């Protein structure tokens, strides 16, 4: 056990002054007799304490280098913030407690808190499992009949921007030491939202075929969207006539009920 300032002062008093000074060996033996439950001090330790007092006039520890240690009260406040609101962000906690964001992150890391992200999961009905089997059989049959069938499929992805503060998978976190498997049900068919669709093609497609397949599928929607941005309040978006476009080649892909969507934390 390291010696604190009080222990060092006690050793100095044992050394004594003038003609009543004890040797280092006598000081070590006396300290051990007074503190039998502690590790005995060595003669070199007694020598360093005496030399430090003669040079500096005190036996306090010198100021430590580096960043100061995080206060225990601050650490408890950060943990309490995460317990009260598991969805809080590092920036929000930093602003509320008036401490740096790096300090908040270090505290979460120290206590093994992890920001679990949500994952989009479609709710499955009883007949959805048969649809999945039918879809697999459909794709296998067409691929056996036409080896170039897979290369002619247009794959698309989309990003939805909700205007009502709907859950954002990129910004929603759940701070916890263990995966809470948190779930919350949402309905994706909300009127006030804008979808951005991005199409991806296999490299095996020719440039002419790619230009044909990547041409706008919803030209009327683009004009309506531009009109919305400049002229129509967001409250009136649900009254707009949005047209529907179709690609030249279609495959059955709707498996699961998209109206009932659940979000759960990633494992």
TrEMBL record:
Upper lineage: Eukaryota, Metazoa, Ecdysozoa, Arthropoda, Hexapoda
Highest taxon, organism lineage: Eukaryota
Record-linked InterPro entries: Homeodomain-like_sf (IPR009057), RNaseH_sf (IPR036397)
GO annotations of cellular component type: nucleus
GO molecular function, one term: nucleic acid binding
Subcellular location: Nucleus
Record's protein name: DUF4817 domain-containing protein
